[in-house]
Amino acid sequence: MNQTQFYAPTRVIFGADTEKQIGDIIANYGYKKVLIHYGGQSALRSGLIDHVKQSLISKKIDFVELGGVVPNPVLSLVYQGITLAKTEKVDFILAIGGGSVIDSAKAIGYGAANEQDVWDYYSTSALPQACLPIGTILTIAAAGSEMSNSSVITNEAGNLKRGCGSDLSRPLFSIMDPVLTLTLPDYQTAAGCVDIMMHTMERYFNHGDNLELTDAISESLLRVVKKNALLLAKEPQNLAARGEVMWASSLSHNGLTGFGTDGGDFATHKIEHELSGMFDVTHGAGLAVVWPNWARYVFKERLERFVQFAVNVMDVEPCADAEETALKGIHAMENFYHALKMPTNLKELGLNPTEAELQEMAEKCDYRPDGTIGIVKKLAVSDVYAILKC
Ligand code: NZQ
Ligand code: ZN
């Protein structure tokens, strides 16, 4: 049995119109000066930013703002945010958006609360000692950053996309109003659902003991997201389905579905981070490309788990040959991605990398000191290259 911990301190405030409580919520925590952090256009266009400002003004809470976070958020804006937070003596960061905005807020939170260069926390084993408190208003169900301890930032110098994990950055609260996600483009909805499922799949495909209850939670989560992702592909305005995937987004990456495991594989994520670091692709779409190739490369190392996944999640009829059942499960997942109009290879993703680019991505991957990533099968540079090449 593995030693294990579950720590999920984020207050979840879920349901229609919950964002209207924002002034009260921050006032109750006693914060005085807020940095409102957001992305490109969507939260401005919907009027959400204005509503938040009005709510803060009504409670006499001072604020400054920094928009412009791009998908695959960049270090240069993080530095701007740190300077702003320090000069304005901000004591709280409110992230309004998805994973990119929340991750950028977490990095600003580290940079403002520590003297060290924030990039050290992403590029070396240095760990932050503090973080400004963060709250979120989630506008896309996907990354799970609204409850997770992780954040991923791209350093434009060298296109290095790297993550930092620290419980210090887990949001104090996350407001989740599924209505806010009704304006999402279909592509982002679908990519979000791929990412949500992948956060559980990364943990599900492990190489150690598993708790039956954790497996049952994981398989239920995957089935519910699969069902509602297909529903949303046909009915993007289905609010009940929006609510299901939003709650799943948070539970899938807050550690719950990894409870009792050895931590999970996460090679698919690491390989995808190289794709989005170099080519700025949408994270979920990149995952849909990497996972089937990864799965076919490693499934024999953990055959019984791939069979369980095929039968319990992908509704495959088990056949006498376990390998055939496992492969049918992987194929069913590819069909599901196609039903969501997600790509399953680099060409469908619109990429045609050169040999040198494939090699560079394989070499740059965020390897452990032993030179490998992944748990199901420990992958070295040549394995990662082979998976990318598929
Ligand atoms: O910038 P705006 O105009 O807001 O547009 C965004 C963006 O273009 C748009 N969008 C968001 N909410 C919307 C909306 N458009 C219309 N209506 C709305 N309600 O959606 C686009 C994507 O937003 P983004 O925040 O990038 O999406 P997501 O939540 O998928 O985040 C992706 C980032 O999170 C990282 C990924 O690597 C990627 O950088 N991840 C973070 C993790 C974590 N911190 O725990 C874990 C994940 O595995 C992932 O790596
Ligand atoms: Zn992800």
UniProtKB/TrEMBL annotation:
Report domain Alcohol dehydrogenase iron-type/glycerol dehydrogenase GldA positions.
9-178
Q: Which residues form a coiled coil?
A: none
Taken from the record, one Pfam family name reads ADH_Fe_C
Q: Where is the Fe-containing alcohol dehydrogenase-like C-terminal domain?
A: 189-389
Its domain of life reads: Bacteria
| Alphabetical list of InterPro entries matching this protein | ADH_Fe/GldA, ADH_Fe_C, ADH_Fe_CS, BDH-like
Q: Provide GO CC annotations from the record.
A: cytosol
Q: Name one GO molecular function term.
A: metal ion binding
Print the keywords alphabetically.
Oxidoreductase
Q: What is this protein called?
A: Uncharacterized protein
Which organism is this protein's natural source? Enterococcus malodoratus ATCC 43197
